[in-house]
Design a protein that fits this description.
Layout lengths: L1 H43 L3 H4 L8 H11 L1 E13 L8 H5 L1 E12 L6 E12 L4 E9 L1
Antiparallel strand pairs: 1-2, 2-3, 3-4
């Protein structure tokens, strides 16, 4: 009987020890989803200065200049899917959890032009461990 209790205790200890690692990964992804939703709302409500906080610090000023110069107004942004970045050469499994691609359908128009345009975007988000924040590193329109 004592032999059966020992493996159960070891299983319980292993579950406790590995749980924080699992929670860390899911918490990081949950934070990404929250950031994506917040970023999309900021774009729709034209809070571009606030949305810029999701852009890597070294690229924020140029991103903000570009979006203000283009005079684009977003009407709807729908997240379609997320997936890890394609990192076939990466050996660190944690790095795969720190880079995600978010696919979205976006509707927008140029200020003063009555036509609404639709685009599909892929946005690459990378997690910065030091800043403990997700940042947009690349956007592609399809």
């Amino acid at each position: 009987m004592n032999r059966l209790k020992l493996p159960l205790i070891l299983l319980a200890i292993c579950a406790i020890l590995t749980a924080p690692a699992c929670q860390s990964s899911s918490t990081t992804k949950a934070k990404l989803i929250k950031n994506v939703e917040s970023y999309n709302r900021d774009l729709i409500f034209e809070r571009y200065e606030i949305a810029a906080k999701n852009i890597r610090p070294e690229s924020r000023a140029s991103w903000l200049d570009a979006i203000l110069t283009q005079r684009v107004k977003f009407t709807e942004i729908e997240v379609l899917a997320t997936e890890p970045c394609d990192m076939t050469d990466v050996t660190d499994p944690e790095m795969k959890d720190r880079c995600m691609v978010v696919y979205s359908d976006v509707q927008w128009y140029e200020q003063g032009v009555p036509s609404v345009h639709s685009s599909r975007l892929s946005t690459t988000w990378e997690y910065d461990r030091d800043a403990k924040a997700w940042y947009i590193t690349e956007q592609n329109q399809k």
